[in-house]
Amino acid sequence: MDPEGSRIQDDPYIQVMMAGSTLRKVKSRSWKKNRYFRLLEDGLTIWYKSRWAGRGHSTFSVTDLEAVREGHQSEVLLSIAEEFPAELCFTLVFHGRQGNLDLVAESPDEAQAWIQGVRMLIHKAQTMDEKERLDQWVWDWFHKADKNKDGKMNFKEVKKLLKMMNVEMNEDHALHLFTMADKSESGSLEIEQFVFFYKMLTQRDEVWKVFQDYSEDGEKLMLEELQSFLSVEQHEGEQSAQHAQELIERYEPSETGNKVTHCAMSLDGFQMYLCSQEGSIFKPEHQDLYQDMSQPLSHYFISSSHNTYLLEDQLRGQSSLEAYIQALKRGCRCVEVDCWDGYDGDPVVYHGHTLTSKILFKDVISTLKEYAFRASEFPVILSIENHCSVEQQTVMAQYLRQILGDMLQTTLLDGQVPQQLPSPQELKGKILLKAKKIGGLEEYVDETCTDEVSDEEEMANCDAEMASTEDSPEKKSKAKSKMSRELSDLVVYCKSVHFDGFEHAHSHAKCYEISSFSESKAKKLAKEAGTDFVQYNTRQLSRTYPSGLRTDSSNYNPQDMWSVGCQIVALNFQTAGLEMDLNDGLFRQNGCCGYVIKPNFMRDGNTQFSPDKPEEREGYKPLRLSIQVISGQQLPKVNQKEGSIVDPLVRVEIYGVPQDQAKDETSHINNNGFNPVWNETLDFTIHTPELALVCFVVEDHDKASRNDFIGQYTLPFMCIQPGYRHIHLLSKDGTAIPPSSLFVNISISELT
């Protein structure tokens, strides 16, 4: 039972990969070493080693890969372009934050075999249905456990496999299952028998119990019974009849007549439906673009990155074009560029006055042109932090015009000075420059005009650092920085201005003016004048950014800023953790396009909403969220030591307005990461459902030290499907870790 089937193994490209190739692995201009690469028999694992590394080797799965870039399409390969022609070079791009693998083949044919072969395997992995995916996991486990590669598995290998799978099982029970599967009584299992063994191992009593509640004969769910389950448990109402029919057609694996008559579903089909995307916690209709995109930009939360050019921390980290590519691929719609004078008249991008490496401004803009609209067609805001001389600002303006051309929005859409900002819909495919501007859109100001102090960003506004830089010559010298007319003219809808208070903004501010706030300034304003901040953010854009003291590129909680309507809440995308999980969670909806419309009570200019007093808003209707955490499936091992098995617990965390911040957790289960069962219920009250995010965290309990992270999944409360649902867990990096999941039953009701 090879899930890849014979077809893919017969492909000439795949045959080259399976035979193996010596490829040059390139890390820099000076680090270029030969490694032997080959595709293993499972058609999914790529194995490589150095010729001299003895037994040491590395592997990765095709499922870890996102794409293959052909030719000189990375900074590293561009740096050696003269040494190795493009037709020998390719880059394997991984999901998440894992670094790329730059490779050079010995001949163009070999390069093509790997480029096309890997692309084919990625496509295959991405288009597998639930059944094929399940077969693939079984196949993977069989290969991992069949140490002597004889295509069979003896009991000793099975015992090792159980440990690898995170299962603690007494030997008698394991032997009992093994004997039942070993129908030929040969003392070993071949692949078909192993499938039977795996099925017995993964039999899920908790799913069987739900099935039994609705199945009259305990063997199958008739169409009406499935319809009843969908209506009562999954809260599907009128559409349940049609949906039941569709589910049988889609997930019923049995060939014994159900496919023909479409009238019943077996336990296997039922389990497959519950584990599928349709059975997941996330409402399918909210995954695609479903929101009104024709409102002013200020009415949306916008996925935004801080110090976008960094891959690591902001003292010594590497500045990289790859960091822009990664952020844009994640749906980020506001990127930051710190510009400084380059030595030969060519502006550079880096974190000023630190040891971070430098990249050319023109290369950043070329990368932006290439990747801006791959993940989303809605506008990208290019936030310029400008430390350049007037001469090099003019060079920047020339690059922006030359490279971006029509992509750059340099004129008013209808020639009129706007009373409100244009919409994401109207600005599709456009890049907006956010920077200082000489004068406003209303008048033409003489070229000799100088703008006042440079953006309050990251410099004068760095709170605690102020004390030490109070009268530094640098601060004085930049207090009246000159602005290049050419660069100024490119700024249309995002003019950076100093914030002079809500009262001043209310009477004088223009909709195209945007201010930046450090996290502490934004928190202070939110606390002192929450409603004013919400009103201000209905008309204008505001950008918040992490404190300059976060030299490790850590993040602040974005929820505090979203709760007062701030749109551009800039985070260090390069730093994994809770804050990026929340950002990914909010922007997982609406086609991952990087724009999420704010609730209606945050779009009305006269709103009285305050996050500190949610009960005072019009239409206030708190909800009760009840989560029965039933079980977990195939949780990943935290400690790779052979004997270690996790003790998992589940914590549910709510993030939203201050009153909604809450967390609760289950007890831990000893020594079972394979199929732990909790059956514990956690209850929460949600006062402002429209702003709440729900985070499911699984940890390995440790009584002596901090619990280890196993997996998480975060989503907006408004995107939750009630009923029996699976939560497909993600790694710390936000990438999928199939087949790890949680099985829950969720109910949402009005608070009475």
From TrEMBL:
PROSITE patterns: C2, EF_HAND_1, EF_HAND_2, PH_DOMAIN, PIPLC_X_DOMAIN, PIPLC_Y_DOMAIN. This is Phosphoinositide phospholipase C. Ca(2+) 4 binds at residues 645, 647, 671. GO terms for molecular function: calcium ion binding; phosphatidylinositol phospholipase C activity; phosphatidylinositol-4,5-bisphosphate phospholipase C activity. It comes from the Eukaryota. It comes from Astatotilapia calliptera (Eastern happy). Residues 603-731 form the C2 domain. Residues 15-123 form the PH domain. Binds 3 Ca(2+) ions per subunit. Two of the Ca(2+) ions are bound to the C2 domain. SMART domains: C2, EFh, PH, PLCXc, PLCYc. GO terms for biological process: intracellular signal transduction; lipid catabolic process. It is found in: Cytoplasm; Endoplasmic reticulum; Membrane; Nucleus. Ca(2+) 5 binds at residues 700, 702. The active site is at residues 306, 351. Residues 133-168 form the EF-hand domain. Residues 487-603 form the PI-PLC Y-box domain.
